[in-house]
Design brief:
It holds the Pfam family HDOD. InterPro entries: HDOD (IPR013976), RNase_Y/CdgJ (IPR052340), UCP036888_HDGYP-like (IPR014627). The protein is α/β, with parallel strands linked by helices. Helices cover 53% and strands 10% of the residues. The strands form two sheets. Strands 1, 2, 4, 5, 6, 7 and 8 form a seven-stranded mixed β-sheet that branches. The longest helix is centred in the middle third of the chain and has 18 residues.
Length: 419
């Protein structure tokens, strides 16, 4: 790309619709489409047509559909525009863009918010609760605090989860204690045995007990944290009114957990975090998403539409605009109050903060790297160096996970209760 082109504003195209008809919106890809602003301007309640389109929607021919061009594009000196994701970007001036869309079906309005104007989450995990309580103003903060506290009770963690958490905190716990706890829940026992018997692990002989699963296949840490994740899966179910690309919520969680496991095994042994903690942090990395749905259902519905319309942005940016805190903050807060190990809730809290340095940075950095791998984006070379992995190592881990997707889906059926 030539130096002059590097300063061009790329135009993002999004299609929305309501019961009356469609709308095409053009705005900078360095901004967030403001659904509320659209509603105020049009007096209509539009929703994105595509469920999750990172590349943006195809450009509709001018004059064939109502279009809104964000004011920032009309004022920019140089733009880059393409007809669809298979085409290359072409430069044009703002006057050329406006001339192309000249007509009664097009209007220029302020409908996007520059990402640079959206505040980020608190720097320190110790400030998270204050930020969340201040998020909705004094009156609503009281209500939010009550809802957060109620969430610790409603829905309750299964009794097996509480017992496993106690084991997590006991450095002297052994296989016998873990087998005893899991065996108290027949469904959980069956899930752990089925998980160890999955083709993913390639065990030829039959696994017929939890002890067998621990000793022969998964290991103590893995079974303890897997059992905890499985039991917690019943406490929070993916909401029906969420972003449509989260329909495979638990598949994403399991794939991330398995990827974390693979990355840890590829790391130099002296730098590795606990394998079980890495697995569980991957399984629960998006747990705050479910918590938001339970704690703030109306806000969650709005957040979901914003996420669909702004698939080009990290979800934390959209969460900060709509909620004024992130799902990583809420998820970490909740897991901390459920007494999960500090490394897990801290790693999740800083999983999108590559600059974080602290006692649990290896786990946080692995979660950050695994997110880049799952999104198929460029990998942060500094983070790769921090965790002692080459780009080839990391990509090979991702390939192994993708190659096992059919086996992973069968494992996900265990969480969803589909035998």
């Amino acid at each position: 790309m030539a130096p002059s082109e590097a300063n061009d504003i790329r135009v993002r195209v999004v299609h929305l619709a309501d019961n009356t008809g469609k709308l095409q919106v053009l705005f900078p890809d360095t901004a967030m489409l403001d659904i509320s602003a659209l509603s105020r301007l049009t007096k209509r309640r539009f929703q994105p047509i595509a469920s999750y389109n990172i590349e943006g929607d195809p450009l509709l021919k001018p004059g064939t559909s109502p279009s809104i061009i964000d004011k920032a594009l009309a004022e920019a000196e140089s733009l880059s525009l393409r007809g669809n994701s298979s085409q290359s970007y072409k430069r044009l001036s703002n006057s050329e863009l406006l001339a192309r869309f000249e007509g009664p079906l097009t209007r220029v309005e302020s409908v996007a918010i520059p990402v640079s104007q959206i505040a980020g989450p608190a720097d320190d995990i110790a400030e998270d609760e204050t930020q969340m309580l201040n998020a909705l103003g004094k009156f609503q903060s009281i209500r939010l605090k009550q809802r957060l506290e109620e969430t610790l009770e409603i829905p309750p963690l299964p009794a097996s989860s509480h017992r496993i958490i106690q084991l997590c905190a006991n450095p002297n716990a052994g296989t016998d204690e873990l087998c005893e706890v899991i065996s108290l829940d027949p469904s959980l026992s069956a899930q752990v045995i089925s998980w160890a018997s999955s083709p993913y692990y390639g065990v030829r002989d039959e696994i017929d007990s939890v002890e067998d699963a621990i000793i022969r296949v998964l290991g103590f840490d893995m079974v303890m944290n897997l059992a905890l994740g499985l039991s917690m899966g019943g406490a929070f179910q993916p909401p029906e009114e969420g972003p449509r690309h989260y329909e495979d919520f638990w598949f994403g969680a399991v794939a991330r957990a398995v990827l974390m496991e693979s990355l840890v095994k590829a790391m130099p042994s002296k730098q590795r975090p606990r394998l079980g903690h890495a697995y569980l942090s991957g399984l629960l990395h998006n747990f705050g998403y479910l918590a938001i749905a339970v704690v703030l259902p109306p806000h969650f519905s709005i957040l979901s539409r914003y996420i669909e319309a702004n698939a080009h942005l990290d979800s934390s940016i959209i969460e900060m605009h709509t909620l004024h805190f992130t799902k990583e903050q809420l998820g970490s807060w909740l897991l901390r109050h459920w007494n999960l190990p500090e490394s897990i809730y801290t790693g999740i809290r800083y999983s999108k903060t590559p600059t974080y340095r602290g006692p649990h940075q290896a786990l946080a950095h692995l979660l950050y790297l695994s997110g880049q791998l799952m999104d198929e984006g460029p990998l942060d070379k500094e983070i790769l160096a921090e965790v002692g992995l080459s780009e080839t190592d990391a990509q090979n881990c991702r390939k192994r996970v993708l190659a096992s997707s059919s086996e992973l889906r069968k494992m996900v059926d265990l969480i969803n209760g589909n035998k």
